[in-house]
Input
Amino acid sequence: MVLDAFATLFHLESLLFLLGGTALGIVVGAIPGLTASMLIALTLPLTFQMDSVNAVTLLIGEYVGGISGGLITAILLRMPGTPASIVTTFDGYPMAQSGRAERALALGILASVVGGVISWFFLAGMSPALARFALQFGPWEYFALIMMALVMLASLTQGSLVKGLLAAALGMAFALPGIDSSIGQPRLTFGSSALLSGFGLLPVLIGAFAISQILREAAAPLRAVKAPAMPGSRLPIAWSDARTFGPNMLRSSVIGTWIGLLPGIGANIAALVSYTTTRQLSREPEKFGTGHEPGVVAGETANNASVGGALIPLITMGIPGSVTEAILIGALTIHNLQPGPLLFQNAPEVAYGIIAAYLVANVMMLVLMWSAVRYIAMISQLPRAGLLSTILVFCVIGSYAVNNSFVDVWVMIAFGVIGLGLELARVPLGPFVIGFVLSPIAEEQLRASLMMSDGRVIEILQRPYALLFLLLAFLTLLWPVAASWLARRRATPSPTPP
Amino acid sequence: MRRPLVDLALALAVLAGATLLFVGAADLPPPRFEPMGSAALPRILGALLTMFATIIGVRAVWRLRTGAGETDEQAAASGAQSARTGDDGESEGTDESDAPAPPPNAVRTLSVLAALVLYVVALDLLGWPFVPVTAAFVLALGTLLTERRVPTLCVFAVYGLGLAVTLHAVFTRFLYVSL
Output
């Protein structure tokens, strides 16, 4: 199967499309406001006249490149190029600020490719079995998984736990306005037609992270910009890093692949769950959020691994896990191909081509980003005024391009101001944005669960996976209290034995 | 500004937001097709926000009464590294312990925000063309964020024009975005 996959791909034309797609994806992924799904949607019409294998390889390259490219601006500028890179800002940016930009980039790239390759093994070897397993998940399991992720938000918070929870609740509240999909009626729109479609994720993300960051940067003294250290002659990475981060990468890859399998969850949640799990297991949890390398590794490994995981239900059952996969299914349909078990019989070259293209795209991403990492790191050496003005223009266009509407641009500006205010009040932005992302999914799954169980909440405790997730959430919530109690107990001198 | 005052302002703003949630939820219809209804989550979040805001507010008032704000201010200054890029203590002529938590030059922040708002007003409400407005916006930011030397501003004028023309061409011709 694997050899068949590569046999379909290794033609010069297919490889060139894959290379072009990956490079384009990296560039677009690095620009705040432009995402892989947007790029794939825009490129889709160009594939109408193309051979189906070439079309699929181009789109897969864009997908892998788009997810990976987001780490560049997340690390250098604290502006996640894509939602999948939100978690990377937590430790990547502090690393860049302390003169370790190149190290953060190198680790991020390495983690991305390792996550991609490990998830490829799952994709190539265990697709049908994993897909069947994921199908056992119902709304209660999804809801419990999201609750676990939400509770884990508390552990993301540096400083005040209450402010972390407040940030998550605020983010969830901002996701409420719009048409309630269950009853088809407006909710919390207060008569405004602009609010009927709610606040878009991209304008909120760009506003909260990029605009608020630019506004803070504008306040910095004109002459006193501390640029990260210039790249040296060798990349700051060694074989010992593989040993140091090996378990982290393996664990994060499994988490990323698993969460990628679940429809509607996404790479950003994969990165979040992986990050918080790594932090919980760390002996130095207090270092996370201050430029701690395992934080960058966990997030970047998981978000890339989730792409491989998301491709599993797409290929084996024709189930899209996210907007990007839905567009990929659209691309296959346009080429008269029906994703699902029959794809391997009706168009094996395409089914195997997707699997092979995913691996080769990861390798190409590694080569492209690795060879360019020194030059990428120089972005932070550019004159600040030029950089900020360019990013601001991109932010405006990126928000506008989502729906060709200036409403999204105003939303972006409003969330920029809100983000600035929250940071001044020392309310963390990470839980805020992740609460915003998770809220609609959590509510949808809870309402579906209650409908299925005639309103009996107790059913959640009768489903083993849901119960496991709830238990993990409960333990996560208890852990800071227990850790604090243990630390106090250790600090208390034990009585001298007689 | 002292940290407890900032926290108090935060608590009041959050309480106002929670009130908005309760008011909005009151107008929503009761559940008909499923047990939960669309008003449940706004009410739950409203209650949670009220609880968190109350905790933060009570703590802030307590610190104001006991005069613990200054200690917290120092903690805020030392923890504010993520809030500024490269504004190391030496370059500001201050040490970290007495650096204020808000941005050092709030006027410049407000100027950049005003420039951004005017830029979007020009594009959206006035309908002015993208290329000249974007070129002017980049030049305005160059004026705000540099030391306003003529050669530098000339560079920004040329750069802004080039950037605007390039972006207009790429987005309208290749990405089908109507700018």
Notes: Residues 101-134 of chain A form the longest helix (34 residues). Chain A has one domain: 2-221+237-485. Chain A has a mean pLDDT of 81. The CA atoms of residues 106 and 289 of chain A lie 18 Å apart.
